[in-house]
Design brief:
single chain, 342 residues, alpha/beta, Rossmann fold, Dihydrodipicolinate Reductase, domain 2
Length: 342
């Protein structure tokens, strides 16, 4: 007789748009059971409780985690409370924590978070689920098969600001470069208006990235980044791709993919779609818990490397020069950056 597959229990904190996407995907996966909900808004919390038929719900995350003892803790909250929620998940004995980008708000915070996570053995997954889009996958396929020759440059830009979008840009450009290690970053930035946003950022930032395999990366985010006129909504105005010796291939988050190769040009459809992208993202969490060798494509260790690139770009602006990786502790990057830009 076949042994029944384990059902993993899940608690979700933060029930706005993204948290609801997570809860819906969890509720539709037969290997997962949604057992706890948390949100600081009682009205939103009660609505989610009714929608998903979950009995354990509270405005206090420690109570939800303590009452339900879930295998998986997912949180989709504002960036400034990453560390306390990581500590809460570890303290509750969860096996995996899945959370929204950016990884942290400073390198100091990120280093502390991942020291605790590594010591506890808790797995992490960060919401870089766009990579599941068929248009993102098609560009990866073209690059991998050698159709654009030897890749020498990877690039990504978004009109969205740094702490909102740069994590995605670094994640996917590095993926298109086989996640080669980064040796150094040189950055430039301008503008202080967006430092008042909940995703506190300079108005515009760019990063030059030197990968260990010789490939150069170029990232831009914010009001000074190139527009993507083919796409309407600002959060979909992202272009990520690779330039090779025989052509290029790129994806537009809200506008399909295209490539020019030695033997001609190709293009195809595709767009950011949570209903399409979230189910495999969630299923890969199950797969990783089932088998430690099936590391999640959006694992936290890879995301942490990308976060270092972001913080290195900030440090580069402050220090006025190249910044080598890996990074250690230092002055909180956004505070230092705001000071020198003011």
């Amino acid at each position: 007789m076949k042994t029944p597959e384990k059902i993993y229990t899940v608690a979700v904190a933060g029930l706005g748009k993204r948290g609801t996407h997570h809860a819906e995907a969890v509720s539709k996966n037969p290997r997962l059971k949604l057992v706890g909900l948390c949100d600081i808004d009682p009205v939103r919390l009660d609505a989610a409780k009714q929608k998903f038929g979950v009995s354990h719900a509270s405005t206090e995350v420690d109570k939800v985690l303590g009452d339900t003892k879930p295998d998986i803790f997912m949180f989709c909250t504002l960036p400034h409370i990453r560390l306390p929620l990581i500590k809460a998940g570890i303290g509750a004995g969860v096996k995996l924590i899945a959370y929204e980008k950016p990884v942290a708000t400073s390198m100091n915070e990120g280093l502390e978070m991942y020291k605790l996570l590594r010591e506890s053995g808790v797995k992490t997954v960060v919401s870089h689920q766009h990579r599941y889009g068929e248009h993102y996958q098609k560009v990866k396929e073209i690059i991998e098969c050698g159709a654009i020759g030897r890749v020498h440059t990877v690039y990504g830009h978004a009109t969205g600001w740094m702490m909102h979008m740069m994590s995605h840009m670094v994640e996917y450009t590095s993926w298109y470069n086989n996640n080669s290690d980064v040796e150094w970053v040189a950055g430039q930035a301008a503008g202080i208006e967006k430092f008042t946003d909940v995703h506190s950022s300079p108005d515009h930032i760019c990063a030059m990235i030197q990968y260990a395999n010789g490939v150069r990366g170029v990232i831009e985010c914010g009001a000074g980044a190139p527009d993507v006129p083919e796409v309407d909504a600002w959060w979909r105005k992202c272009r990520i791709g690779a330039q090779g010796t025989e052509g290029f291939a790129e994806v537009l988050t809200g506008g399909g993919w295209r490539a020019v190769m030695k033997h001609g040009a190709m293009s195809g459809p595709g767009g950011m779609d949570y209903e399409h992208d979230m189910p495999p993202y969630i299923q890969d969490i199950v797969n990783w818990l089932d088998d430690p060798k099936q590391i999640h494509p959006c694992n936290g260790e890879t995301a942490m490397k990308g976060f270092q690139v972001m913080m290195a770009a900030c440090r580069s602006v402050v220090q006025r020069g190249k910044v080598k990786l890996p990074l250690g502790e230092g002055e909180p990057e956004l505070e230092a950056l705001k000071r020198v830009l003011s």
